[in-house]
Amino acid sequence: MPKKKAIIIGGNAAGMSAAAQLRRLDGDTEIIVFEKGPHTSYSSCGIPYYVGRTVNDPNLMISRTPEEFRKSGVQVWTLHEATRIDTKEHTVGVTDLLSGRKFTERWDKLLIATGAAPLKPPIPGADAEGVFGVSTLDSGIRIRRWMEENNPKRAVIVGGGYIGLEMAEAMNCRLGLDTSIVERAAQLMGTVDGDMAECVADDMREQGCKVYLEESVEAFLTENGRVTGVKTDKRTLGADIVIMGLGVLPNTKLASDAGLPLGVKGSVIVDKGMRTPVPDVWAAGDCAQSFNILTGEPMHIALGTVANKHGRVAGFTMAGLDEEFPGVLGTAVCKICKYEIARTGRLEREMISDNISHICGIIESGTRADYIEDAGSMRVKLVVELPSRKIAGAQIVGTEGAAKRIDTCAAIITAGMTVDDVVNLDLSYAPPFSPVWDPIQQAARFIQGLIRRKQRGRLSR
Amino acid sequence: MPKKKAIIIGGNAAGMSAAAQLRRLDGDTEIIVFEKGPHTSYSSCGIPYYVGRTVNDPNLMISRTPEEFRKSGVQVWTLHEATRIDTKEHTVGVTDLLSGRKFTERWDKLLIATGAAPLKPPIPGADAEGVFGVSTLDSGIRIRRWMEENNPKRAVIVGGGYIGLEMAEAMNCRLGLDTSIVERAAQLMGTVDGDMAECVADDMREQGCKVYLEESVEAFLTENGRVTGVKTDKRTLGADIVIMGLGVLPNTKLASDAGLPLGVKGSVIVDKGMRTPVPDVWAAGDCAQSFNILTGEPMHIALGTVANKHGRVAGFTMAGLDEEFPGVLGTAVCKICKYEIARTGRLEREMISDNISHICGIIESGTRADYIEDAGSMRVKLVVELPSRKIAGAQIVGTEGAAKRIDTCAAIITAGMTVDDVVNLDLSYAPPFSPVWDPIQQAARFIQGLIRRKQRGRLSR
Predict the structure, then answer these.
(1) Inter-chain contact B308–A437, Cβ cutoff 8 Å?
(2) Strands B377-385 and B358-366
(3) Which domains does chain A have, with CATH numbers?
């Protein structure tokens, strides 16, 4: 009997996690990965650090090379682009991008892990030289090389989300460019509530970065095909380099052409085992749909953590074992200049727009006991569902050592704990780590007090 | 009708938390606190930082002064020692330590929050000048003043637990004394398993501190009533100052004399509402008994976190409201030179001695993505109960940024999550904070693999 063959399209987080997991669980199936770029298993999240010269060797951001995968029995073909999927014939059409050779490969099982691509709105001049999106490791290498060759002095970042801000930090604080951020919304970091994002904008400005909120980019000005400026609805900014940080969209043309149904933002619809509705076809990572643990609603989350989990689950189910992706809380953390910013679960504005009864509380506290020399500050916001008193969301903004507490909140929310359970948790304390009541518990106690006063107020009326 | 009167004996974490909580919930009852020392509401945990000159003003370690409490309607009498409790007559005998005046005060409700005192084994010479225990803020002030006046060159720390090690760090790294640690057990930090404590001893030695394990102190050598050395069963160490860090015992002579039943280590037995079996008498903090969330067994834990929770609950129940202390996991964290050390839940050696089926796994990982410049290292150990696969305990040792993850583990254990639930948790990631699978999840995945291989091995036999 010939060997079964599993083909994986896409050799980054989800694809290679699935390949590695499948290899561990199933020693027999032949595993072939086609990756159109030159690298596998790299950390996209590291790109701003490479561009900002914190990291100087891009190979450091590759967790496993094609050669290492080959040694473990996974065949990896980089610079090979899958161009067509036939789900009836169980084949995939592939182009070797170096030689131009085209061939067809048969599969028994197929995993689509084609990732996501930066959103490129149809702004005039968006294709000019010097305008970059941030996606693959290769795109990061290209940005850095272009900067070395062209020595830009003025950067404009379009989009104030985490990628935009990480790139703004690299440009402004690390590379010393005259840097501006243009964001259409009234706040930076749209993944947190406005009252948690303010200090981030203040800090960026203090670092010398210009921040323009509630401004839309109308055009990129060019000369000889090269960017020279950014025209917004309020002003014109000179620019030698422009970084687009407007988020990403799933890369699902290939899947869609093959007849796979798409969901949120065009991501491939999958069940909890990462199976698409088409037999023997899986999807995972930034191209696949996720769902919210709390609401069950479909979501698209393009994060490395999720892609790795997707891939791991796909590896299990492709091996014929039961495993389920548990869904997401949208947990995320990033570091922008002096601030760490983290969030998980639901925002206040989501509770309002979904018309869910809730109460929020924000406290200011310290990252250490206040008498310790380098104690920093932090702000914790908890979103609590009523009348259940369950924690629905948490946001943290603070200096070094503040934000990883979001993981405690993610566990709390996943477990369905109430604000009272949080006060009761046996969390750790020593002066170099936190005040005696951890800031998370301070926020929970504060909200207990708010609810108590609210109830008293109601009784006394 | 005369006002009800609540008397609280002890003005530190538990007593003052209870006073503040009772005041908030009940505006009528008269609240009087008797504290035999000069300070209230201070951070005992800050003492090593004061002795080590990280903190120079002891007032910074006082979170609320007697004057501040008085303003909020709590009468605080410092340097007033309660000497006798009559639970039938509902009175307490008090001595004003400044004037020597004795008086009797009537109470409707009484809270005993008399704390704990350093264990002083009957070693010859233990009363010599220069031999110190670490307990009250006053004791810290006395150590520092004595050191300023006597300029000791050689310190011996007796006991390698967290207080001993924090004081050793202060003496060795901060103050430059020739420092030795003598510990009877085969490892430092008996609150973690031996395989997690090794690197701490190695690091202390690297910092120039001498560490003597499996050695017992037999006598303190003295000259003219002043310590000059420490004689162990293996050697004699010269010493100008000796710090006893052998743990603490509850201060419960007063409670015991009043007929209150004592439990573990002589701590006052209380119910979940911090009520003693004697009507109208409560106990809280380092003098009161706690219990283990996982096993329900009574424990004595003398930590600020627990004392604050005890006090808070006592404040509620003294106000006539329902509230329960949830028990402890023994969560603790400390920083010793370059290492952060944290633990929660059950140790491997406890599972063995209790004969509970389990599996453990240790992984080595990083505090950041490995390509980030100042990435540190960390070691995570998870203890997993079988066949339930529930996380029973966690231990973390690592450099800056490692250990606060123990709070996530505390939430995980409290929620009864399995090793599989942990792998599935939506934890945060960005390169400056962790690898893409957080080290906690790496440990959980490692243990999943161990269990899988064990089961396969069993099937193939």
Answers:
(1) yes
(2) antiparallel
(3) 5-117+249-318 (3.50.50.60), 120-246 (3.50.50.60), 338-460 (3.50.50.60)
